[in-house]
Amino acid sequence: MQNTRKVTEDIIWVGCNDRRLALFENLFPIQRGVSYNSYLIMDEKVALMDTVDASVTQQFLENVEYALNGRDIDYLVVQHMEPDHCANIVEFMKRYPDMKIVANVKTVQMIGQFFDEPGQERIVLVKEGDTLSTGKHTLRFVMAPMVHWPEVMVTYDETEKVLFSADAFGTFGALNGNMFSDEVDFDRDWIADARRYYANIVGKYGMQVQALLKKASGLYIEMICPLHGPVWRENLAYFIEKYDAWSKYKPEDKDVVIIYGSIYGHTEQAADALATKLALKGVKNISLYDVSTTHVSELIAEIFRASHVVIACSTYNGGIYPPMENLLHDMKALAVQNRTVAVMDNGTWAPTAGKQIVKHLEEMKNIKLLENQLSIKSALKNDREEELEAFAQQIVDTL
After folding, report:
1. DSSP character at residue 294
2. DSSP letter at 57?
3. What is the predicted pLDDT for the residue at 350?
4. Strand 47-49 to strand 39-41: parallel, antiparallel, or no bridges (unpaired)?
5. How confident is the model at residue 274 (pLDDT cuts 50, 70, 90)?
6. Is residue 87 predicted with pLDDT exceeding 90?
7. Per DSSP, which regions of 187-283 are E strands?
8. Cβ–Cβ contacts within 10 Å for residue 237, how many?
9. Which end of the chain is more exposed for a tag (fewer CB within 10 A), N or C?
10. Tens of pLDDT along 5-62?
């Protein structure tokens, strides 16, 4: 059974949903699945905007054949060569022998790396600012390198003012019939997945996202069609502003996120006590996470959201508790910056994790490390309440 929906009179969503996939990129848990978006532009000539993952090929073929209603595809525009979008290139080349591949130089190179490179007669090579007419629609190609692969480009439909944005403006989550962002409560049900998607997949490339946003600001955009998640046709500024903040590494909220690594519970108890101190000082919306049971992608997303982070960590084999060390590695790899961080460590015979955590943080950009650190030996006792009070107060003072 086909599953398609009109985006505009001429543009048809022919993508697919995958609710069986447990880990996106075999790494990120996706309890709500994911959508692989693809779009047909029905004009004098037909253009297909990207393909989908191999896991949903059969559904994709049914969708496309139904939408074509006997017509052929003239152009396949390849904006991004990750396998969840390029897996069906060869299949479509076989099914539509007259179809041309529209791509830039880096994309053609990657096609040759994944598959047998198509002959030059089947390639329409494009670069920054080039256009392609399908009849009444004119597609303009805008290069977006490292958002988040080097070959990425986005496509602007000058006729309908639609930006086909590749992986930009995407989010985890399958589409449940409601394809448009204004058909769902995005701020309630989608923003957390959108933030986690951005922070973990695109987060490292803030400078490149800023470059793309600058290019996009010169276009009159009425709709954004990403490769994952809902299509935007209303209130575009809301999501664009989120991307602007995330790519500038600006916190969304002046909130405190406490992330603890605890072996037997004593560090967790200290983190709990700190949270209560902060609450008594008027701090609201405090978040507390166990680094051992919360997926690192969730933690990264929270760090992107909040202005203040507390790292509370047990010493393990003379070093940093391994799940916390993994988080610190991800923070550095994803270019986390412009955050205020307080450090608390614990150790029975050698509480050395704190010094090593500080070293990691000092290697990151624009991290404001609070001077007053709290080092615990085994358990936080009542006679150290004044120290805990001072530790909490410095956080409040910077809020």
Report:
1. S
2. H
3. 85
4. antiparallel
5. very high
6. yes
7. 223-225, 253-261
8. 10
9. N
10. 999 999 999 999 999 999 999 999 999 999 999 999 999 999 999 999 999 999 999 9
What letter does residue 119 receive in the DSSP assignment?
A: P
What confidence category does residue 116 fall into, taking pLDDT thresholds of 50, 70 and 90? confident
> Residue 131 CB: number of other CB atoms within 10 A?
11
Torsional sign, CA 317, 320, 324, 327: negative
For residues 377-392, average pLDDT: 95
Give the torsion sign (CA, 276, 361, 203, 56).
negative
Total count of residues recorded for the chain: 399
pLDDT over 90 (residue 117): no
Query: CA-CA distance, 67 to 337, in Å (whole number)?
Result: 46
In this prediction, residues 217-222 reach a mean pLDDT of 96
pLDDT value at position 386? 96
Longest alpha-carbon distance in the chain: 80
User: In sequence order, which residues have a C-beta less than 8 Å from that of residue 351 and are 6 or more positions away?
Assistant: 315, 345, 375, 376, 377
- Rg over alpha carbons for the chain, rounded to the nearest Å, is 24
Cα 399 from Cα 393, distance rounded (Å): 10
SS (H, E, C) 124-147: EECCCCCEEECCCCEEEEEECCCC
State the pTM of this model: 0.95
Query: pLDDT tens digit string along 258-269?
Result: 999 999 999 999
Q: Tell me the C-alpha distance between 49 and 51, whole Å.
A: 7
How distant is the alpha carbon of residue 92 from its chain centre? 28
Burial of 229 (0-12, 13-18, 19+ CB in 10 A): buried
Q: Which two tokens stand for residue 231?
A: 């299509």
